[in-house]
């Protein structure tokens, strides 16, 4: 069992697997059983040096290739990812504990979408001509150089591609550090990119904890840092990058509101609330964990919600019948159980769940609290687990003010049959990625990211190009230069 998912080596640098067992061992624990399924080693200073050195050396020639040539490689990698979707999904399930039913459709597939989208965009990254009488200016879109990506543990394959695809499309090199909790999948992304024809050194993966991340973020050769993670980590990384004037994208946490008006289609609203609280066992940054339900329909909503939540099938995540998996780690499970106890102590009404499930692995039952008030800890802090807080409201203006009363601003959702109200309320909510009569859709074509403490910059869509490139402007004078003397 120990070698169930053992990778060829811990790191992928300069087009090949590299091992250095003098680094700190990182056990890879399968969340469904608690067993160790692989061991990788944290990057030593020599490994970090090798990754950055090869990235910097390879980037110059990559930037000189045409966007069409770069795009062709990314699109080929997307095809390989799709061909191997089953095996990659099985690995993602071992890495994260998420059910195979979910990883088959949400992880490698969305990674492939990103590679395909940015591969298709690469040839279109042109500048513009700005006429000024007989003079003119032209602009050139240039890569930043070496980009560092720091991943989170909830969507390892997807995040590796969401960061790598736009970086490579723009002509950058990428050094990617996955979360130490889920180190396996990014190595496969690197391997597939190389197989698709990516020149060696342009997408390196190295393992490690915060120390390795810190070494990458502060290195003078690094031009850009993109992090997916928690707000406290984001603030530290942002500060370190800012002190050396590096570009940053921060995709951080949230405590997003989902507002269900009295005229909403209740089945769809409950479906949105389930997707926004229990998909990936609640381990999604954009989750709508504050569900504001109009008091006229609250009890009907809660009764039907409890019925539908009872349909969760907990079990072996590698069994496609299972639709609800464990927490990613014992530590995360303990954090979530701590919040559930606080919810009980604060006097919220437990509708369902509220306990660790008596089976192997780190399972927490899907949990719903009702009669939650804005000042409760479970309504203010990001739990990152399957805990839904249902709050009452009566008035539109009141619920908007309450929804916005948070340091976060990643997502927001509104369920209503009233078209103008849907747009009006979303227009007033302080959030970056919003939904009307839906929740948590994240197509690569749409920008993804937050406002306030939830982050800066945007991932996906054409917006991401602006965060992985810079514009040079060139003024061309056709006549004589006038000077004062």
Helix content: 25-40%
The whole-number mean of residue pLDDT values reads 97
What is the end-to-end distance? 81 Å
What is the number of strand segments? Answer: 20
Global Rg: 24 Å
Strand order of the largest sheet: 14-15-16-13-12-17-18
Shape: globular
Count of DSSP helices? Answer: 16
Largest sheet, in brief, is: 7 strands, mixed
Residue stretches low in confidence (pLDDT < 50, at least 5 long) are: none
Proportion of beta-strand residues? 15-25%
Class derived from helix and strand content: alpha/beta
Description of the structure:
Strand 12 (257-260), helix 10 and strand 13 (290-294) form a beta-alpha-beta unit. Helices cover 38% and strands 21% of the residues. It has helices at 45-64, 67-83, 85-96, 100-106, 108-121, 156-169, 185-195, 210-217, 231-242, 266-278, 298-309, 330-345, 377-380, 396-404, 419-428, 463-467; strands at 11-13, 16-18, 25-30, 35-41, 129-132, 135-143, 146-150, 173-177, 203-205, 222-228, 247-251, 257-260, 290-294, 349-352, 367-370, 387-393, 411-415, 433-436, 455-456, 469-476. Strands 14-15-16-13-12-17-18 form a seven-stranded mixed sheet, with helices on both faces. Strands 9-8-7-10-11-19 form a six-stranded mixed sheet, with helices on both faces. The chain is an alpha/beta fold.
């Amino acid at each position: 069992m120990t070698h169930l998912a053992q990778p060829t080596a811990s790191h992928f640098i300069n087009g090949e697997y590299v091992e250095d067992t003098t680094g700190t061992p990182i056990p890879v624990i399968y969340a469904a059983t608690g067993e160790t399924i692989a061991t990788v080693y944290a990057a030593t200073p020599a490994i970090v040096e090798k990754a950055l050195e090869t990235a910097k050396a390879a980037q110059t020639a990559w930037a000189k290739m045409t966007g069409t040539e770069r795009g062709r490689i990314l699109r080929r990698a997307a095809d390989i990812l799709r061909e191997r979707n089953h095996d990659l999904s099985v690995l993602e399930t071992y890495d994260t504990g998420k059910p195979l039913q979910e990883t088959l459709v949400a992880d490698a597939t969305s990674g492939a979408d990103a590679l395909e989208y940015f591969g298709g965009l690469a040839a279109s990254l042109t500048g513009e001509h700005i006429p000024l009488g007989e003079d003119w200016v032209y602009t050139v879109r240039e890569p930043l150089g070496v980009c560092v990506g720091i991943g989170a543990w909830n969507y390892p394959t997807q995040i590796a591609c969401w960061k790598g695809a736009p970086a490579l499309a723009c002509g950058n090199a990428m050094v990617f550090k996955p979360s130490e909790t889920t180190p396996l999948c990014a190595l496969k992304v690197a391997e597939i990119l190389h197989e698709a024809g990516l020149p060696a050194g342009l997408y390196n993966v190295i393992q490690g904890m915060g120390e390795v991340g810190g070494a990458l973020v502060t290195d003078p050769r690094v031009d850009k840092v993109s992090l997916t993670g928690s707000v406290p980590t984001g603030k530290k990384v942002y500060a370190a990058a800012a002190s050396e004037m590096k570009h940053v994208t921060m995709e951080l946490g949230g405590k997003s509101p989902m507002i269900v008006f009295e005229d909403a289609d209740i089945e769809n609203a409950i479906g949105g609330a389930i997707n926004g609280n229990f998909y990936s066992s609640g381990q999604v940054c954009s989750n709508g964990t504050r569900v504001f339900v109009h008091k006229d329909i609250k009890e009907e909503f809660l009764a039907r919600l409890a019925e539908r939540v009872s349909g969760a099938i907990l079990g072996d995540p590698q069994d496609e019948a299972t639709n609800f998996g464990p927490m990613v780690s014992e530590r995360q499970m303990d954090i979530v159980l701590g919040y559930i106890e606080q919810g009980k102590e604060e006097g919220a009404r437990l509708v369902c769940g509220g306990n660790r499930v008596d089976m192997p692995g780190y399972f927490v039952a899907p949990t719903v609290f009702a009669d939650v008030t804005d000042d409760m800890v479970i309504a203010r802090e990001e739990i990152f687990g399957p805990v839904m807080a249902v709050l009452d409201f009566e008035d539109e203006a009141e619920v908007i003010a309450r929804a916005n009363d948070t340091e976060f601003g990643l997502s927001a959702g509104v369920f209503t049959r009233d078209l103008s109200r849907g747009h009006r309320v979303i227009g007033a909510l302080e959030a970056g990625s919003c939904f009307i009569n839906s929740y948590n859709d994240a197509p690569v074509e749409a920008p993804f990211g937050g406002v306030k403490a939830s982050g800066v910059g945007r991932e996906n869509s054409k917006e991401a190009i602006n965060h992985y490139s810079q514009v040079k402007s060139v003024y061309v004078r056709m006549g004589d230069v006038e000077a004062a003397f």
